Amino acid sequence: MLKWIEIDLGAIGDNCRAARRLLKPGVRFQAVVKADGYGHGAAEVARTAQQAGADSFGVLTVEEAAALREAGLMGPIHLLAPPLPDEAAEVAALGLIPTVDSGELLSALDRVAKKPISVTVDLDFGLGRWGIPRRDLAKFLGELGRRKHLKLAGISTHLDYVAGKNQIEAEEKLKQFASSVRSVKAKYPKAAGHAANSSILLDFPHWQLDGVRVGNLLYGVNRTSKPISLENPWRFFARIISLQKVRKGQALGYGSEYFAPSPMTVAALPAGYADGLTMEPAERLIGLGRAYRYWGILKGREVPFIGRCGIAHVLVDVSSVPSARVGDPVLLPVRRTAASARIPRIYKR
């Protein structure tokens, strides 16, 4: 096998338990497995999270939810984005909890329902992707109340919060959201309020409300400065398929835009931007060392990218690893959700 991704499900389970330990009593935990579990495999992550105590799953689309059902996941599945009205029948058939923000969607769900459908009303607090304005909540709940087959499961929002940037603004929005939740609970006492994603759970632990929706932390990613013990479950490897000695001044890569600043050993790896690696050159000028923006790891040492990353290959400088051989695996950086689905996943438990 020339390239593969190792996914440690044990690490994901440990991360789930670490996040759950932050919860107050009675707060429910939703494992977010959208985008194929952030590239890790939605069904595998969902099973692992469920075993580690997750109460429900969050996905973005009906297709993602259907894949979980086909894989045998029978827990509650929340659609974090509103489905299309013409997907209402499938929402009902799969037993999903959809996010709603339009009268058209409410009508479509009500028409197809053979039994009550639980829905979540989303409020837009500035992200601008979907949801209703806070000022329209009472009117929208009135529309919802006229649909006899729909019942309110919860009120949600997703803030435009970036850890360490707009914390004061986020605190004020969370206060406003909590006020809306309290007003809704006066009429719908079982409606759950939830606004906390991974960053808000860590930076605003006092706003857990009735539930949290955790994605990044499951996968070992912490965007905040707050400490939490997490493990990285993801490693992408590609084997060296060629080694060559390069003289000082020799041009390498597309456009001859890289010139070797000294004699070096260059390894070719069969992974490129079609696999999710960067398309940017590692260094446009002559130079070595920390000026490089991207590198792999070979036998514990950094091996910098040189030249441009191609569609199916990248060159790395392995001069610091005299023992490098064809066939050696190199650990590579890749954005997990950008990693090609064609790359084999190997699961460790």
* Percentage of residues in strands: 15-25%
CATH architecture of the largest domain: Alpha-Beta Barrel
Task: Trace the largest sheet across and list its strands.
Answer: 8-7-6-5-4-3-2-9
CATH class of the largest domain: Alpha Beta
Low-pLDDT parts are 281-291
Q: Quickly count the helices.
A: 9
Helix content: 10-25%
CATH topology of the largest domain: TIM Barrel
Radius of gyration: 24 Å
How would you name the CATH homologous superfamily of the largest domain? Alanine racemase
Order of helices and strands: EHEHHEHEHEHEHEHEHEEEEEEEEEEE
Domain unit count: 2
C-alpha termini separation: 20 Å
Task: Provide a descriptive summary of the structure in words.
The protein has nine helices and 19 strands. It has 349 residues and is an alpha/beta fold. The protein folds into two domains: 8-219, Alanine racemase (TIM Barrel, Alpha-Beta Barrel), CATH 3.20.20; 234-348, Lyase, Ornithine Decarboxylase, Chain A, domain 1, CATH 2.40.37.10. An eight-stranded parallel β-sheet has the order 8-7-6-5-4-3-2-9. It has a five-stranded antiparallel β-sheet with strand order 11-14-17-16-15, with no helix packed on it. It has a four-stranded mixed β-sheet with strand order 18-10-1-19. α1 (9-20) packs across α3 and α5 (88-94) crosses α6 (103-112). The longest helix is centred in the middle third of the chain and has 19 residues, at 167-185. Mean pLDDT is 94; it is low at 281-291.
